[in-house]
């Protein structure tokens, strides 16, 4: 894998395309953060698949954007062939990338969009398909940037100066093309002059909260305190938290929301302490084909993430392990969903459908 070191004080964007149709996808290897900010160059689709699978690029919207560019990378080997073989390659690459991770619907949303664009084009050459697909991937990236800014603006209205807020996992600029979803709400409130104090759950087992969220907030000069996941109840009981904002990987039609494992527990704690629990996510994270969260596929990950986190044995050899990467928070625990279309409240199917369709007519 080809890597590029960057200056420690300036980190490049989460991901970016370099060059024309024969270019490559560059992305920050998030498994190295916060110790090192290093980009990897993805010049074949297998490298993109591996980067998604092993969480070098992660977070639902960023996975979608990476997959869209992954289609462009994967198509490069078919550019000298005829249109039929080029379209067959698009299907093959989309099917392959769809096997990288199962829960974040943004992956499938982006792949479906790329596949449709290629097949609707009526192209006269493979080059034309490649050019159009690169434009579509760039559009997906640009839309994600715009949606995140809008989420930040809508969400900031819900927070007041001086509040303590809690978040779980990482739903920041690293999880999107830029700026984030849950963290966008904090960034926008901060830009509005509101002083917030953010509690970041470390987020076992892969520590996205400690490694990524704490780092992002610190970089932006936002007051942040890192806590272990098991401390959230006590922090709430002490009255330090007035709102919880998290991201999402897939939102069913009724508002049930899959997000990083531990989110459901945080939602229950918030309810027990009468603290509003908000989900921030773009429309690309909604899966209206699923009636409820019961149908959301939950990724099961390698037991070694729990027994050998970060290279050291932390459990006895041969121990049985259960490692679901996500859980589902029922809609009844969610005060509102903040999306680029506005604030969805109450969280129910009718309000979700109305809000999303109003914007996507
Ligand atoms: O396993 P990860 O790190 O990809 O999980 C990420 C999350 O659960 C995020 O909260 C979610 O994708 C929202 S990102 C804006």
Give the SSE map.
Layout: E1 2-5, E2 15-18, E3 24-28, E4 38-42, H1 45-53, H2 60-75, H3 83-97, H4 105-120, H5 126-156, E5 164-167, H6 182-191, E6 197-201, H7 208-219, E7 224-227, H8 232-237, E8 243-246, E9 250-252, E10 257-260, H9 263-272, E11 277-280, E12 286-287, H10 304-307, E13 326-329, E14 336-339, E15 342-344, H11 349-359
Parallel strand pairs: 5-6, 5-8, 6-7, 8-11, 9-12, 11-14
Antiparallel strand pairs: 1-4, 2-3, 3-4, 9-10, 10-13, 14-15
Helix pairs in contact: 1-2, 2-3, 2-4, 2-5, 3-4, 4-5, 5-6
The structure holds 5-S-methyl-1-O-phosphono-5-thio-D-ribulose.
Distance between the termini: 43 Å
Order of SSEs, N→C? EEEEHHHHHEHEHEHEEEHEEHEEEH
Q: Count of DSSP helices?
A: 11
Number of strands: 15
User: Overall pLDDT, averaged?
Assistant: 96
> Biggest sheet: strands, sense, closure?
7 strands, mixed
Instruction: Kindly estimate the percentage of residues that lie in beta strands according to DSSP.
Output: 15-25%
Low-confidence region ranges: none
Task: Find the structural class using helix and strand composition.
Answer: alpha/beta
Oligomer: single chain
Shape: globular
């Amino acid at each position: 894998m080809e890597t590029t070191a960057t200056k420690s004080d300036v980190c490049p964007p989460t991901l970016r395309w370099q060059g024309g149709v024969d270019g490559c996808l560059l992305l920050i290897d998030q498994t190295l953060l916060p110790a090192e900010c290093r980009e990897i160059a993805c010049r074949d689709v297998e490298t993109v698949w591996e980067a998604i699978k092993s969480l070098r690029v992660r977070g639902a919207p960023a996975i979608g954007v990476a997959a869209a560019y992954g289609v462009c990378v994967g198509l490069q080997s078919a550019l000298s062939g005829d249109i039929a073989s080029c379209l067959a390659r698009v299907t093959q690459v989309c099917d392959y990338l769809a096997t990288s991770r199962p829960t974040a619907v943004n992956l499938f949303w982006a792949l479906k969009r790329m596949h449709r664009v290629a097949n609707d084009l009526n192209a006269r050459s493979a080059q034309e398909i490649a050019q159009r697909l690169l434009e579509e991937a760039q559009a997906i990236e640009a839309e994600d940037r715009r949606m995140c800014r809008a989420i930040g603006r809508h969400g900031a209205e819900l927070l007041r100066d001086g509040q303590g807020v809690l978040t779980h996992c990482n739903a920041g600029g690293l999880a999107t093309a830029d700026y984030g979803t849950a963290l966008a709400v904090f960034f926008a409130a901060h830009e509005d002059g509101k002083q917030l104090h953010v509690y970041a759950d470390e987020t076992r087992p892969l520590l996205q909260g400690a490694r990524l969220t704490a780092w992002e907030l610190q970089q932006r000069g936002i007051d942040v305190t890192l806590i272990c996941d098991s401390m959230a109840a006590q922090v709430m009981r002490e009255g330090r938290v007035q709102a919880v904002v998290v991201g999402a990987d897939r939102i069913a039609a009724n508002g049930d929301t899959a997000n990083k494992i531990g989110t459901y527990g945080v939602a229950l704690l918030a309810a027990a302490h009468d603290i509003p629990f908000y989900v921030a996510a773009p429309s690309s994270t909604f899966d209206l084909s699923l009636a409820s969260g019961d149908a959301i596929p939950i990724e099961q990950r390698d037991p070694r993430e729990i027994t050998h986190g970060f290279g050291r044995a932390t459990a006895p050899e041969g121990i049985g392990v259960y490692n679901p990467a996500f859980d589902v928070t029922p809609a009844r625990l969610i005060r509102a969903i903040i999306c680029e279309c506005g604030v969805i409240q109450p969280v129910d199917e009718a309000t979700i459908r109305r809000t999303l369709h109003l914007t996507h007519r």
